[in-house]
Task: structure prediction
Amino acid sequence: MSEFAFELALCAHLEQSRKPPVAGADQLTARQLGGSVADPGGRILDIVCIEPGPEFDERAAITDAEIPDAAIESAVGTGRSRYWKDAFDCHPNHARRAMERACEIGFFESKRRNGREYVRQVARYPDWYDRIVAIENKPDLGRPGDLKMQLRTDVSLALVDQVILATESYVTRAHLHRLPDPVGVWRVHRDRESDAPSALERGDEAAIGVGVEIDVVREPTPLPTAEPGIEPLAFEPGRTEIEPVSAAAKERARRRLAERAYGKGWRTYDFPDCASCVLTDEAGATLPYCAWADALVDANADCGPGCPGYEPAVAPEVDLDAERDRQTAWRASPSGHRRHQSGLDQFR
Result:
């Protein structure tokens, strides 16, 4: 099975499992997020699960989008508005982009006065997330790629609270010895609930389902997220280039990671414009299944005229945001906290 198909099936399962072995009920699940601090983009986490914190509802009420970190870090508050250029401690271009995006998504509200734009937060930024768990997907341990270095980076940096390796392979003692001790290990089993030909003959959509079961081979050990970390930047024979990362930098990176997970989620795939595409219903999630390939497929990488089974057709229309809203605690297009007051003194 491809890592893409494995990842989607596991995300769907984690989102709806009533006994999630990750972070508890109502967790937020996202995929393909940056997990580095010193080397942005140097480490991509396959799946990230966010455990909601005490003020999650307040976060959900502000906006359904990722809030720019520069806007959160700025001196813009919920009281009197401020001239936006005086409120940011970063490059002016970056500050303007963050300010405009924060206004666009409803985290800031703005008003022009004397030719200047003044902004303020519509609500205090809440304490909305708790533990963060990263899952590295490696269906076939016989093709590990950079797995060892990836997991060493995650453990050494300790940006997330727990790290788990998910695989379909039988996990041996030798496999476990090659992994960093704090890394948990899952063996994932997938069973098809109905066969593709019968579903296609009936003309059903969302008729093909796949059940997922998880065997916990080894429990993860909590990582010291509140302490400084070491981020490996390059692995060479006999030498590893590293960068120390402060606890404060990790805290900011964790917030960025949580915000990115909140805004992005895991339904970031497209559906093929092919007659072989059948919509699946997997744990309440609609996924792109190809009847010709008998697999979940990545429309942007696996499909197109170069595929022998390709038959041009209109891609199915699926409102994935509405589905996420129904299935999770994330809320699409919340009403927000924009204040409607009269009088110019509100901007003084």
About this structure: Residues 3-57+127-264 form one domain. The chain has ten helices and 14 strands. The chain has three domains: 3-57+127-264, 68-122, 277-327. The first helix runs from residue 3 to 16.
